[in-house]
Fold this sequence. Notes:
- By secondary structure, this protein is an alpha+beta fold.
- The protein folds into two domains: 4-139, CATH 3.30.1330.10; 154-305, Phosphoribosyl-aminoimidazole Synthetase, Chain A, domain 2 (Alpha-Beta Complex).
- Helices cover 34% and strands 23% of the residues.
- It contains ten helices and ten strands.
- The strands form two sheets. The chain has a six-stranded mixed sheet with strand order 6-8-5-9-7-10, sandwiched between helices. Strands 1-4-2-3 form a four-stranded mixed sheet.
- Strand 2, helix 3 (97-113) and strand 3 form a beta-alpha-beta unit.
- Helix 2 (61-79) packs parallel to helix 3, helix 2 (61-79) runs parallel beside helix 6 (199-205) and helix 4 (163-171) crosses helix 5.
- The radius of gyration is 20 Å and the shape is globular.
- The two termini are 38 Å apart.
- Adenosine-5'-diphosphate (ADP) is lined by residues 8, 12, 25-28, 88, 90, 118, 120-123.
Amino acid sequence: MPSEFELIQDYFNWQQASHSVPIGVGDDAAVLNLPKSQKQQLVVSVDTFIEGVHFPENTPADAIGHKALAVNLSDLAAMGAEPAWFTLALTLPEANPTWLHHFSKGLKKLADQHKITLIGGDTTRGTLSITIQVMGFIDTGKALLRCNAKPKDKIYVSGTLGDAAIGLALLQERLESPHISPQANQFCQDALNYPQPQNLLSKIIKPYTNACLDISDGLLQDLGHILKASTVGARLELDKIPLSDSALENGRKKALPYALTGGDDYQLLFTIAEKNEPLLLYAVAKTNDKISCIGEINSQTGNVTDDFGNLISTKGYQHF
Ligand code: ADP
Ligand code: MG
């Protein structure tokens, strides 16, 4: 078993000194060079990831590494920020080299994809828990906030919703009469274990977007956050909510509740003024990303209604 210092050196000391990180992993603290320009702001977010709460026991180690960083990158995407650095506080029941190898590999692969640098952390013994803090930059005053949705804005969502929640239900054998192929099952497991944070899409939609967040606790609950912060309401077109072919194998009626209230989507939910819609659609059409208009903001504060004007409850996953 590696000692604590060998463990850090072997699995988490990835980076040579660089211009923005003259001192990273290895000293008592990291030393970072901030951008010279006064025109940028630092954006910071932290999330803890606990076995049995945020991921089921027996989740592959590389998936734990991937997902712990993905959920944090997703918060930067939701703000429209450019990823820069992250720290890793790791609590492990034991220093298992195989587990550490795969965890560190999953984490580094996603970090490299998004050009975010691991600059330090902490390593302790205890129940498996991972805390990652991400830092990124944004042009001053340009952060995408929850409080900027306006009546008549169109409501958009990226990707498809509910796949991860269906993956979890399949894993826990909770899905009623699951008529789902092995391929669709795999797709939903991958959505659960390897969520893809929407940082590239975030850059593209940013110029046109009023309010934005990432969906982590279910579409309705997270939409509720935008409505509350912006003191507006929303009308949803439930048949426009994007579902994957895999989710649809079990029928739209069975899949829709997972899309509305299931967690772990890490897709972007954003609102834009109608006049910006053609520009948004033109910009997104040049990418491989998919976005769907699922409704409209109105002035009925806090209310979500369906196409027929029926009220919909905005409950999703809550820890307490
Ligand atoms: P200290 O005793 O000052 O808390 P540590 O022994 O915890 O220092 O850490 C030594 C160095 O290793 C520091 O630079 C710290 O940021 C880094 N480090 C510790 N654990 C991790 C980790 N899990 N991932 C990345 N860097 C880490
Ligand atoms: Mg320490």
